[in-house]
Amino acid sequence: MLNFLPKPLVGVIAVSLLVLNILVCCLFLFSVALIKFLLPFKPVRRAVDPILNAIATTWISGNNGWMRLTQKTRWDVQGIEGLQYRGWYLVSSNHQSWVDIFVLQNMFNRRIPFLKFLIKQELLYVPIMGLAWWALDYPFMKRYSAEYLKKHPEMRGKDLETTRKACEKFALIPTSVMNFPEGTRFTPAKHDRQQSPYRHLLKPKAGGVALVLDAMGEKFQSLLNVTIVYPDGIPGFWEFLSGRVKRITVRVQNLPIPKHFIGGDYENDARFRAAFQQWLHEVWLEKDALIAQLRAETAPA
Length: 301
What we know:
10 helices; two-stranded parallel ribbon; alpha/beta; 13% strand; Glycerol-3-phosphate (1)-acyltransferase; 50% helix
């Protein structure tokens, strides 16, 4: 445990170990991914994808290792009992910081299949990691403004098409599909700008969740509804690396997915869309109340 060292030094050590872990694992990852690139056939994919996921799982285990070495965080996690490593899960969480991703990976590693995120297309150009996400079949989503879509209506629905194609690949081997329905990290400014009806959350975007259910809903065992709270304030990434995050509280609800929401036409069926949005709104109301409760329980004395 190196948390007794000066915080800037802890951050430097954590960054160094993170980068080293990335370089070593990506060396193996890219070597295996090259086979899939040169031989883009379904039998090859079935053979190669589990190896790629195993490498990625090892990478997360490495991250968990340097986190234990450099952090002195108290974790309060409930609801991860009884999960199955060989299965399909739809995972949904509130989003506040880049730290959320490390929290989710730490908590679910080797408990459920490797998490696949829906991520912004701009992240494809992140050095090394962009290629790693591509090799692991992360779907890259490009969002268009309303003004752009007015000028280029042919681009409407492209994000949904990308999600559908990615989900077809996810259906081949056990996968956990991760989604942040808010679409962006929570900030008070965004909350005010949206005039969000929730105290601690932004408005959820139902379209992506609905499309994932449409594409592979029959595969999912359940929805893992994750609520993350940082009792001492939402941390920045450097704060996390420097070992300044004292407490992390997480609650996971294993929820059944209503069968009538599987295979529905969210884009063209107005009644289905309204019902789906109402269901997600109710999930979000419960999450908002839970966040308020957890904050009250964990508030500094």
